[in-house]
Amino acid sequence: MLMLLSRERIIASPGFNRWKVPPASVAIHLCIGSVYAWSIYNPPLTRLFGVVAPASGDWSLQDVTWIFSVAIVFLGLAAALAGHWLDKVGPRLVGTAAAVLWGGGYLVGSIGILTHQLWLLYLGYGVLGGCGLGLGYVSPVSTLIKWFPDRRGMATGMAIMGFGGGAMIGAPLKRYFIQLFYEAPEYLGTTDQVSLVTEAGKRFVESAGQQLEVVVVGANEVANMLVPGPEGVYVVGTGSAGVAQTFMVLGLLYFIVMLIAAFSYRVPADDWKPSGWTPPEEDSETSKMITTHNVDIEEAMKTPQFYRLWIVLCMNVSAGIGVLGVASTMMREIFGTTLPGIVDGAFAALYVSMISVFNMVGRFFWASSSDYIGRKNTYWIFFALGIVLYCSVPFAANQVSASPAVVWLVLFYGATMSIFTMYGGGFATIPAYLADVFGTKFVGGIHGRLLTAWSTAGVVGPLAITSLRESAVVRAIEDLVSRIDPAVFEARFGAGIEQLDQLVAAQTVTIASLMEIAPEGTIDPTSGLYNNTMYLMAVLLFIGLVANATMKPVESKHHMQE
Fold first, then answer.
1. pLDDT tens string 390-402
2. How far is 158 from 378, CA to CA, in rounded Å?
3. For residue 475, what are the domain limits?
4. Cβ of 497: how many Cβ atoms within 10 Å?
5. Nearest CA to 45 among 70, 30, 66?
């Protein structure tokens, strides 16, 4: 079996058509790129017991968002370790290991969901799946750079394009299976038809001599249901959110597709080069910095250029990955209450898919463009334009809250889609940037080491966006409660304002439920929950801009002796 997977077994014969290799690369990246549609899982994972709304025993958004972060952390760590291994054993063995880990991680995660064991979900999707992501990510990159030395940017754009497009297929696929396996919980009627009791922040009803925990869906919360249903009272612990079964099906599907793609890999012979192509002369201009020399992996780690590029990648990724982790939730929170007739669950899922489309297109467009304008100039555009676009998002959110209109949704949509073309372009351009600076011989290993920046960004981005969002939610709830008559509050929730902390912890009191009893004319604060996050992302991009501006060619003392 090891011989079947070895690098020697997949060396291409003379005359092999190099264009047969990109489809296998894209197929693997389409599978693992579905991680970018993680936000589709957020609503059902936070409603496993309540199904139609979060119950007291359900996981919080912060709990499940961190699963995405753990997967990205282990992606970077696995890529760092696998880069040098890939150069030795070849992409078929690495791709096969990726299929086992990514598909298997999904299956372990499904067990965690069924048993409501959060640590199993972290272990399966986060640790095992994350390692599968890292192995699957690096396996095609150095392979395609070797097949296309004449078009490095285009090659890395093709290799990584599928990763950006994974959510384009993954988002509707996940939503389809979730709705297929969804089962509505037991419905008891409207609040007028049921006698509710509040204890320790939880809502209960008396039925057949026993207390049943329930969730109450108000008019403002109907739009956030996984599958539309009537407002009213539902029994906790009945029905199914459909996400566990979705994990099982997708785990098996991804394993099969990735395994077939891994066995389709071929690598060129060591002395191979494209017909009629001659390597270009060395270009030491700061705009392109293309070297004809090679730098060993360990030697590259000693250069300041490696760490500047590490900062460049980390800042670019941090600014985008936090938004990716909560994209579906963010769209529904900013525009779901202000434009309820337009923005619902289906619209949010389509938004995630469109992020994937622009992410994918950006990877190919920007990486290919960098062959002509230079990698350094390409990153100049990413950072300078990105700062402006991130600062425009809070403006759109504030405007739609004060004066709901579709034009603000269009502005938000255009800004974020432009951001994600550059987010994806950053990933696709960085391998070619590395090849320009350190040579092509060990670019796979160096690229793997650099992807630890992705691991760091996988923590920084989601931590920033969830922490700042939670702080904004607390402030918004406190502000709304201060405007509401205490008697009205107690009549709505069955408990006084002095029990606010318990009610919030049990997810009985939310911004949406408070807005139902807020004085007329009160502006819904939900649209502004992400404003501070967007300003922080702009600051991160400025740091990346400075790091990119200081890039220079590697000193000759670091070059390998030919």
1. 999 899 888 888 8
2. 17
3. 21-183+240-270+283-484+519-558
4. 15
5. 66
